[in-house]
Specification:
The chain is α/β, with parallel strands linked by helices. The protein has a domain of 171 residues: Rossmann fold (3-Layer(aba) Sandwich), CATH 3.40.50.300. The chain has eight helices and twelve strands. The strands form three sheets. A six-stranded mixed beta sheet has the order 6-9-10-3-11-12, sandwiched between helices. Strand 11 and strand 12 form a beta hairpin. Helix 3 packs parallel to helix 5. The radius of gyration is 18 Å and the shape is globular.
Length: 252
């Protein structure tokens, strides 16, 4: 595991939606080169954390801080956070009829650059990542997520991750709605992109994706707080025992 200074650091984070407190003092950190998993039951606040990190206006930070590469980003707009190297994959990706995957990715790449990437360089990058992630050529010509299966939507998001090359990726329920074959394909894509320059935070209910992507650290979020952190074996223990034993401990 990397011993570098955390790339993403969450300090005593409290977040509310419509004046209802969802996160109640979350602390965790992820460094480049590390893979962390955030697990917890429905309603624990996992997706709230991902959206708060990216600056979604619906989520209000009432206390604490979010640091990215040592700097507070609470005052940053969502697009500034994305341009700086933060990436969030969505549980339910939106379809954009009329916009092809290749055109969407080219616009996204250029949005984070002072000068546009030359077309030839972009095509080389896209071809390299599609080959690495085993994405069929015809997907690039289709409209983004329009008529895509659940597995195709998630594969398109992993392709975005590969092309944009962020420093920190938050994968929100990437395993949601996937059959076993699609899950394995998506997990193989994440593993192919993992490396010393990318930190990954996987948000999930279940252990199944962690059977393919082994995390360095597992955090368990219950009722808006991280109640336990540990190694990959913690996910296996949750698979065997469920969340009730941790919920009882948190209540006590």
């Amino acid at each position: 595991m990397s011993q570098a200074r955390p790339t993403l650091e969450i300090r005593d984070l409290h977040v509310s939606i419509d004046n209802k407190e969802i996160l109640k003092g979350v602390n965790l950190s992820v460094a480049e080169g590390e893979v962390h998993a955030l697990m917890g039951p429905n309603g624990a606040g996992k997706s709230t954390l991902g959206n708060a990190i990216m600056g979604h206006p619906k989520y209000t930070v009432t206390q604490g801080d979010i640091l990215y590469r040592g700097e507070s980003i609470l005052g940053w707009t969502p697009d500034a956070r994305a341009r700086s190297g933060l990436f969030l994959s969505f549980q339910y990706p939106t379809a954009i009829p009329g916009v092809t995957v290749v055109n969407f990715l080219r616009q996204a790449v250029n949005a984070g650059r002072e000068q546009e990437m030359p077309i030839r360089e972009f095509r080389t990058l896209l071809t390299e990542k599609m080959k690495l992630l085993k994405v069929p050529d015809e997907m690039a010509r289709r409209y983004l997520n329009d008529g895509f299966s659940g597995g195709e939507k998630k594969k398109a998001e992993i392709l975005q991750l590969g092309v944009l090359q962020p420093r920190m990726a938050i994968l929100d329920e990437t395993d949601s709605g996937l059959d076993v074959d699609a899950l394995r394909t998506v997990a193989e894509g994440v593993n192919a992109l993992a490396g010393p320059e990318l930190g990954i935070l996987i948000i999930t209910h279940y252990n199944r994706i962690l059977s393919y992507i082994r995390p360095d650290t597992v955090h368990v979020l219950i009722d808006g707080q991280v109640v336990r952190s540990g190694g990959a074996d913690l996910a296996n223990e949750i698979e065997e025992r469920g969340y009730d034993w941790l919920m009882a401990g948190a209540a006590a």
